[in-house]
Amino acid sequence: MSRFFNRMAVVVAxxxxxxxxxGAKIVWHNPESAGVQVVQxxxxxxxxxxxxxxxxxxxxxxxxxDRVWRLSRNSAGESIVFSTDAKEIVVRYKVxxxxxxxxxxxxxxxxxxxxxxxRDGKEVWxxxxxxxxxxxxxxxxxxxxxxKPKAHRYTLFLPLYNEVSWLEIGVEDGASFRFEPLxxxxxxxxxxxxxxxxxxxxxxxxxxxxxLQRRMGHxxxxxxxxxxxxxxxxxxxxxxxxxAKVYIIDAMPNICSLPPDAIxxxxxxxxxxxxxxxxxxxxxxxxxxxxxxxKANPERKQKQDNALNMQKQAYDQLLxxxxxxxxxxxxxxxxxxxxxxxxxxxxxxxxxxxYADAYERELREILxxxxxxxxxxxxxxxxxxxxxxxxxxxxxxxxxxGKHYTRVLIGDSIMHFWGGADDAPAKNxxxxxxxxxxxxxxxxxxxxxxxxxxxxxxxxxxxxxxADRIYLTIGVNNTNPRYCDEDIIKGLSMVIxxxxxxxxxxxxxxxxxxxxxxxxxRVKGLNVLIKKLAKEKGLRFADPGKVFLMKNGKIDESFxxxxxxxxxxxxxxxxxxxx
Length: 579
Known about the structure:
Layout: H1 2-25, E1 26-29, E2 39-40, H2 66-72, E3 79-84, E4 89-95, H3 106-109, E5 113-117, E6 123-126, E7 129-132, E8 136-140, E9 152-157, E10 164-172, E11 177-179, E12 188-192, H4 194-197, H5 208-216, E13 220-224, H6 233-240, E14 246-250, H7 252-255, H8 260-277, E15 283-286, H9 298-320, E16 326-329, H10 331-334, H11 349-367, H12 389-400, E17 404-411, H13 413-416, H14 430-434, E18 440-444, H15 450-458, E19 466-473, H16 485-502, E20 507-511, H17 520-537, E21 540-542, H18 568-574
Parallel strand pairs: 12-13, 12-14, 14-15, 15-16, 17-18, 17-19, 19-20, 20-21
Antiparallel strand pairs: 1-10, 2-3, 3-9, 3-11, 4-8, 4-10, 5-6, 5-9, 7-8
């Protein structure tokens, strides 16, 4: 008996000590107390909601069908972005519905997914360890990411088929933590069926809408409603309230159950109604993704073919009526592989990737966001300690909105540190900047490489303002052995095209890369190629950095603070080329 009590005493002591340690180590943060909008993939900002993670506002209750309303309480497509330097991240939360379904695991129905990037913008996935009790817990530890900055941004994707009633993110005591506010840019809005909602992804980030968000970097609002995407007027009106970058209409897997004429009429009514409320926003209409078993089921194949034909008729009629900005993703373009479904209807992760591939190709064309075959032509985010690259991006977006500028200077930290940037960690050339005529916008961003600038342009950096002249000076951070000259020129060419497409009213001037310590010869050779590129593109070219060179081809250190960034006198020598 004494042995039993001794054992119990040890167990109680261990439980007490563990609780004490956990209490001392973990500090909890609730998104509902963030003070700013932090739920990515959620629309209707500023409107009352019955639940913090509900996708529809409270006013939709009793307006949309009850089944749609109940599905709108699921957190499909939503995510939380936060920054921390923690070595351990713990998420605890509660859901209100069943944790799993017969054809979809608990990790997809009710689970979480955590992603981040290393310092070079490469995506990193963190596998969590679940404790599936009344309060679900997912622990990510230990976190040790190669090339990881001291503090980094994480995206936590929320459950696809469950309602989150509350959620907290915990980090060890003493670790930094910050919820990241949303970017002031328009989202892609995806309306569709259970497949759009996420069935049957094995985990949240593998839903095709979340794959798109991860690949393209644009917020995607997921308005998928399992078995209930019928383009009802009440739902279309809610969708139209969202000021979107693109609307995706992917309702065919549900609409195909209607009689053929009703399929056509439903599509016609829904698209006309949406276009009447949003006359300029691109609308992408998707075909049925197809049933892999239809070859062995003639009846189902006939139903599928009839549905595809009716939707295409509707699309052609809408074009004939003069509706513009309409795009079509066909069955052949979706190209669902034979083995891409779980039970013949809902797609697996394999199918989700195929679906996302098709959407990405179409959306990149619609949005004019091409990617190339080398590092400089594939847009990526940036992160370096202690410089907060994303904060700088957000600052430029909010600072420039609705304004007109005489000149816009685009570049890396050499531009950012010039006197005009009020958020620069270092400032030089204040006098020369103040002498510029008209309004000037400093769009320099520390550590930027060509591929980082491409990401910023694709994500709104040139939207919302007009300019007389734009000066492009980028590439010095690409002058290391990882990048060949050919790839640098390819990236510059793509950046030039992106700028011209978004700011056609502005005169674009291409500037040579500034020389820096120990890279003078490389920069000189690159500037010969950049001058040639400018001629091919019909651009005016200047090489202002030559003023920094001595007769021996080396930089004159007296014009620099560190062999890279100009000092006051250095900026004075550059200024005439930017007037």
